[in-house]
Amino acid sequence: MTSTENSPASHDSAPVAHPMSAVLSMTLCVSMLIASEFMPVSLLTPMAEGLGATAGQTGQAISVSGLFAVAASLLTATVAGRIDRKIVLLTMTTLMLISLVMIALAPNFAVLMSARALLGITIGGFWSLATAVLMRLVPPAKVPQALAIMYTGQALAAAFAAPIGSYLGGLIGWRGVFWVLVPLVVINLVWQFAALPALPARNRLTFANLLGVLLRPYFLRALGAIIFTWGSAFTMFTYLRPFLETVTGVGVTTLSILLLVLGCAGFIGTWLAGKLAGDHVIRLLITPPLIMGAVTLGLLVSGHSLVVVAVLLAIWGAMNTAVSIIWMAWLSQNVDDAPEAAGSLMVAAIQASILLGALIGGVLLDAFGIGATFIGSILMAIAAMLFVGSGRSLLKR
């Protein structure tokens, strides 16, 4: 891979006519992806009942999307070859639309899993290209701010999708919730078509390019930190509803309020990460696993107190949105010569960790109870902190 391939310094010669509209169209796509991917968290119990499955089994619907996201993140940039990246992104959004319709119509657990697999392809394909595309839409100095704007979509989904999904699920059923998402994705598809400029592929990405980035020692260590950071988060988050129902003893209304608190705190995390990541990214890398692991421990110790749980979930929510911005800012600074390759590998690692987190958490839940699931999350957070260390070993050489 040449030094100019996908480099932030090698922007297209023609400036993007409306970069903010293009960035905002990707922001809405992020919001729809997050809502679609993690809606089963807020609807886990009714979905399990409606499909005749256990809560642990239904949690695997998140796992299967992660499995296919891993494959898609590694294959999208390579298989897509020289296809215009705008066309690739539009294709990913179309697949998300099809997946949502399939979930809403799913007559059984097998169809649900198939639809989630299709969604996984969208997740892996979009995220593997997202940072590299942003680096072509805006000047290098604006990348952290553009990332913060795009990840505002994550904060929006985290703030409103879960509580609204939980509330609407009680009114119109879990299938109705997924039908509500369908027209929003249609709007997003039209907006992307109008706002995104042509993004011709540059030199074709090969598996040799991926291997070259993967074998960089600092990048390989970063992947270890990423896997355990996200694995810790989603071992806990996937099974948050069962914890709140059985330990804290909340009903649907209170559950929705708690999820809203968690999500709204994400706006604070997004703002802080966008403001600080540009100059302090290395110092920030250890913060998410440290704080999120401590929150999970706090929930185990004080989960019976509604007030304490609300405060802890707010802190967790802030870190949940900040972590993505922190790591993608790290990518833009330390793998800026190969953002598509790095993005593909990082998204694969993230999705693999989400898959394993949901899988391990589900097994622990069904076998030993929710306490074991949360302990598993804490152990992963400790492992993530060990990989990050002081952060110096994660700097490019």
Automatic annotation (TrEMBL):
Pfam families: MFS_1. Keywords: Cell membrane, Membrane, Transmembrane, Transmembrane helix. Gene3D superfamilies: MFS general substrate transporter like domains. It comes from the Bacteria. InterPro entries: MFS (IPR011701), MFS_dom (IPR020846), MFS_Efflux_Transporters (IPR050189), MFS_trans_sf (IPR036259). Residues 20-397 form the Major facilitator superfamily (MFS) profile domain. SUPFAM superfamilies: MFS general substrate transporter. It is found in: Cell membrane. Its main location: membrane. The chain crosses the membrane at residues 21-41, 61-80, 87-111, 117-135, 147-170, 176-199, 219-240, 252-274, 281-301, 307-330, 342-361, 367-388. It is a multi-pass membrane protein. This is MFS family arabinose efflux permease.
